[in-house]
Design brief:
Radius of gyration: 37 Å
Structural class: alpha+beta
């Protein structure tokens, strides 16, 4: 990155900012937050502060209005154009007047829609307990309210806030003393601590009964205001009718609301983009350095694009400008980072950024992750059929969901790369749905079959070999990064770690009989040199910290044994599924085997990816990765 300063006469400031905004090639620096710059920030004067407040309110109002209508693909082609970046392009007074006029109607329509939606959500909460009570007297459920009145009957729904059933008997005794046999009381639980009661009584006893219930502090089952004066069965019928009508009313309310907003939607989308552009330029103007007659804009430009950016800026005919490059620390965390992955590695970029952005002038591990992560995924899955199914699932999901979400598209691409390696290792291990392929086609493994009795040793050695290569590569990259940063102490520490690990691996190879006796003495010497070097760099604590640090590096390599463990778990689960298929009737065996294979496939698409990411983040990245970077965000790209 190059740090440029653009200086000119103060009256040119607005025009220059508009030009930089159009070019979208420079990330601006707030001069008030940069200790290396000895210049005051312009800030916002009263007029610009007022414009900023009005624009922020306008953006909030437009956002709120546009979210009220459903998405419409027909609007998208009309709103693809960039807003006019010229300050003052948005006529605030005209837009505010239009919003004031439309908002009155929109707010009324939105309130009605909210009321209907609340009613649709609330009514079932009243309806469910009422239906439980109505079922207690099914012989009355079919009678209308007028028919009940003709029979001289009335009903009341009550709620006892208790779980004690004896209170129902107490209430029945009180009512018997007052009314004799002129009532009927039934009850049912309507909640964990609530008992619902249904009273059927003579219409001429209504007033006396309500008075008695009030004296005993027995409350009626609460009903919405529109149903409070009705009997139980009348309220039930009215609620059911209302619930049937509400969906159509809500649809009509949605349509009415959209008819108010949709004629303005395209213009409002454009206005919203323009208002955001003006807000961005106001914020930039406040961060620019100024004197009484001059201004100084400071920002970052990719070094490869400096000459092009300067030529384009001069080509806008903005008047005399002085453009110079300022000295800066390329390794500072304040220096933005322009991520440029190769096309094949691009889907893995979000996995790196999920952990952190790399610091400027440091290594970007995305390309290496694109090599090793699918490889580890393939080692753990290692099945031709599982790999093929995951490949198809990844391709399908990318086409189905990738258009709407770049992250989903990248994740599907990662799955596709891993599935390809799973198919390759499936042929190497001779696996297709576990041992089913071997049972049907014979042993077709190109290397060894993981489910065999003699497969454990080569599988563990293979996992350790991958771990050793991965960790040593990380240490070498860390040495290179330390050398570039002139961090000599860190370089020697990583050099000692590299020597120790190489020596220990050689000793292990000699012990396993893989290396001739002549390697033993150099291996021990290399191990001792590495240990002494690491211990010496930690001062008086080196006797304890040095060995602990090196044991941690050995633990990092051993952690790659999970490649073998996860793979063995997968193949044995597949073998169990195949064995279960032979137990019992054929149709039952097929169902059970299919269930376990689907479960294993789901685990194969999830667990190996998590384990491979863990190995990268903890064992690999810890050897060289420097985070804390900030992505390059050119002025004008947020629109």
């Amino acid at each position: 990155m190059a740090k440029l300063q653009i200086a000119g006469q103060r009256e040119q400031l607005s025009a220059v900012l508009e030009g930089i905004y159009r070019l979208q090639g420079m990330q601006l620096v707030d001069v008030s937050k940069d200790s290396a710059l000895d210049v005051d920030a312009a800030g916002l004067d009263a007029a610009n502060a007022g414009s900023q407040a009005r624009l922020e309110l306008l953006v909030a109002r437009l956002d709120a209005l546009l979210t009220l209508i459903r998405s419409d693909d027909n609007l998208e082609p009309l709103t693809k154009g960039d807003p006019d970046p010229v300050r003052g392009a948005v006529d605030l007074s005209a837009v505010e007047a239009e919003l004031d006029r439309v908002s009155i109607l929109v707010e009324a329509a939105a309130r009605r829609l909210d009321t209907l939606a609340d009613e649709l959500a609330v009514l079932p909460r009243y309806l469910n307990p009422l239906e439980k009570l109505a079922n207690l007297v099914p012989e009355l459920a079919g009678l209308s309210e007028n028919e009940l009145q003709k029979l001289g009957l009335d009903t009341a729904a009550l709620v006892l806030s208790t779980s004690d059933d004896t209170l129902v008997d107490t209430l029945r005794s009180e009512l018997t003393q007052e009314f004799g046999a002129r009532f009927d009381l039934t009850s049912a639980r309507v909640g964990a601590d609530a008992i619902g009661c249904l009273l059927v009584f003579s219409h001429r006893d209504t007033a006396r009964l309500h008075t008695l219930l009030g004296q005993e502090h027995v409350r009626h089952l609460p009903l919405p205001g529109a149903y409070s004066g009705q009997s139980l069965f009348g309220a039930l019928a009215a609620m059911r009718t209302r619930l049937d009508a509400l969906p159509d009313e809500i649809t009509d309310a949605h349509q009415a609301l959209e008819e108010l907003i949709r004629p303005h939607a395209v213009a409002w989308h454009t206005t919203l983009a323009g208002a955001r552009a003006e807000l961005e330029q106001l914020a930039a103007a406040a961060a620019v350095g100024v004197t009484e007659r001059a201004f100084a804009i400071v920002g970052w430009v990719p070094r490869t694009g400096v000459a092009r950016f300067i030529d384009q800026l001069h080509g806008l005919s903005l008047g005399p400008l002085v453009i110079e490059e300022l000295p800066h620390n390329v390794r500072a965390h304040s220096t933005p980072v322009l991520m440029k992955e190769r096309r094949a590695a691009r889907p893995f970029g979000f996995l790196t950024r999920f952990l952190d952005n790399p610091r400027a002038a440091s290594l970007d591990p995305t390309g290496l992750m694109a090599i090793f992560l699918p490889l580890m995924f393939g080692v753990m899955v290692g099945d031709v059929v599982y790999g093929a199914l995951l490949l198809l699932a990844g391709v399908w999901a990318r086409r189905k969901f990738g258009k709407d979400s770049p992250a989903v598209a990248d994740l599907c691409s990662v799955l596709v790369f891993g599935a390809i390696w799973a198919i390759i290792f499936g042929f190497l291990f001779g696996e297709a749905l576990g041992n089913l392929g071997k049972n049907v086609f014979g042993d077709f493994s190109l290397w060894f079959y993981r489910g065999g009795a003699d497969a454990l040793q080569p599988l563990l050695l293979f996992a350790l070999a991958i771990g050793a290569a991965h960790v040593l590569l990380g240490v070498v990259l860390g040495m290179w990064q330390s050398w570039r940063d002139r961090a000599h102490r860190q370089f020697l520490d990583r050099l000692g770690t590299f020597a120790f690990l190489c020596g220990m691996l050689a000793v292990a190879g000699f012990a396993a009989g893989a290396l001739p006796p002549g390697f033993m003495t150099p291996a021990i010497a290399l191990t001792v040199v590495g240990l002494v070097l690491v211990m010496s760099l930690h001062g008086t604590l080196g006797l304890m910290m040095g060995p602990l640090e090196l044991l941690g590096a050995i633990g990092n390599i051993l952690s790659y044994l999970r490649l073998a463990a996860v793979g063995l778990a997968s193949v044995y689960l597949a073998i169990v599924a195949n064995e279960l298929a032979t137990v019992g009737p054929l149709w039952l065996g097929i169902i059970v085997a299919t269930f376990f294979h689907v479960l294993n496939l789901a685990l194969a698409g999830f667990s190996p990816l998590i384990q491979a990411l863990r190995l990268h983040y903890v064992e690999f990245f810890s050897k060289f990765f420097i985070g804390g970077g900030h992505a390059f965000t050119p002025f004008g790209t947020t629109r």
